[in-house]
Backbone:
């Protein structure tokens, strides 16, 4: 499975969509180097859209300041988050659970520095970019609709983890973190499986209808593609 995040430029704004797994717990993640290669400095980022608050989407929000405390990695950025998403994850049961330590390390500091901004799930970011609610995987997941130069694309976050789901939208990732002690805390993969399937089905059919490019976070590189419909069946076209 890939971990893909997007840098979008629109109306002179530099917008990062999600920040990856980060480097804590020995994880190898190179968002800092990737941005440098593109000649983008952390202070160049104006907006960070957090599609949802799973660990693999918020990791580079902060880095270790050197003394174990977190420092926000993008000093000028406003981080756009859904209130629904925030309220769901910021409950004591998650904040005190060892699996969710990343919330304290990577998400809560945004509030302390005043860089957290709640926005509506259908907010317009620029003339070309609009948020879109994609609940299911998590309660407040959003994607981004891009309409530019007569072309359409959708960043669909974790609506789908593999193109196989185009043929089988009812297939969802197993949850390796499931715990009988606290089933809710352990639903890391899809918080609401039925809603996730409904959202996936809707997004795939819409993409087949209008030929838009789907940009995902976890399909294998390059993580994007189009969907075609032939004889009533949907097919992936890379
Ligand atoms: Zn993810």
Residues:
């Amino acid at each position: 499975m890939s971990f893909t995040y997007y840098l979008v430029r629109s109306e002179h704004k530099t917008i990062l969509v999600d920040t990856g797994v980060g480097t804590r717990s020995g994880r190898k993640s190179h968002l800092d180097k990737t941005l440098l290669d593109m000649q983008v400095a952390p202070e160049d980022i104006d907006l960070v859209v957090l599609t949802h608050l799973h660990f693999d989407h918020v990791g580079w929000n902060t880095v270790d300041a050197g003394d174990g405390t977190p420092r926000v990695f993008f000093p000028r950025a406003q981080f756009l988050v859904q209130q629904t998403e925030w309220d769901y994850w910021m409950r004591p049961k998650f904040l005190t659970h060892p699996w969710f330590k990343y919330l304290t390390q990577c998400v809560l500091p945004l509030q302390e520095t005043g860089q957290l901004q709640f926005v509506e799930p259908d907010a317009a970011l620029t003339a070309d970019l609009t948020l879109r609610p994609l609940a299911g995987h998590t309660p407040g997941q959003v994607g981004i609709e891009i309409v530019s130069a007569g072309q359409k694309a959708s960043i669909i976050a974790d609506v789908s983890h593999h193109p196989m789901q185009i043929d089988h939208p009812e297939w969802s990732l197993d949850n390796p973190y499931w715990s009988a002690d606290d089933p809710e805390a352990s639903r890391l993969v899809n918080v609401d499986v039925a809603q996730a399937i409904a959202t996936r089905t809707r997004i795939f059919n819409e993409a087949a209808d209008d030929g838009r490019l789907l940009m995902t976070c976890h399909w294998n590189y390059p993580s994007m593609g189009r969907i075609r419909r032939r004889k009533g069946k949907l097919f992936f076209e890379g």
The chain has seven helices and 13 strands. The mean pLDDT is 92. The longest helix spans residues 193-210.
